[in-house]
């Protein structure tokens, strides 16, 4: 199993190098600190760094705060706020504020864990400091995933797809994209786990779509002052 997973991600990595000759290759690094803040109220804070242009230039950094609560055994609802600074445009740096509401559904069948997340979000860049800062960017996104959990396995693999649909402004209304992903997750200790993901992001419904291949490395930490979920 270890050899199979190692081979898969090695091939994915070198495939990215090949793709990078015609498509962009990015690397993302994130940390997630999460747990139960109060009874039935989950909290997480997630800083992240993104590097693009074949992982040679800083694209953005961001930090996101999430609050969610379980409505049913199979349903969670929540709110999120993200502050993001983007550097990919040499003419200006964008400071983006995002507010989102989401619902997460979960279902178990044997050793498989199915999940679906629906989210609607509103973004504004450079609020009150530019003409575009008064225009809200609104989109909804949908993520479907499945994870295989087996105590005998070295790690937990998962895969899925996410779709992004722009609602406003009008000039971006048909600018949509999808993101395929494959992930392996490994518990390092009771409170720390690590993830490695390969993601392929592609615009659709537009001419000359942007395509990005992404390797994401993440650490999840559950501190003592937050109850482990």
UniProtKB/TrEMBL annotation:
Keywords assigned: Signal
A Pfam family that the UniProt record links to this protein: DUF2490
Keyword Membrane on entry: no
UniProt entry tagged with the keyword Chloroplast: no
Residues spanning the signal sequence: 1-20
InterPro entries found in the cross-reference section: Bact_OM_Channel_sf (IPR053713), DUF2490 (IPR019619)
Name of the protein this chain belongs to: DUF2490 domain-containing protein
Organism: Plebeiibacterium marinum
Lineage: Bacteria, Pseudomonadati, Bacteroidota, Bacteroidia, Marinilabiliales
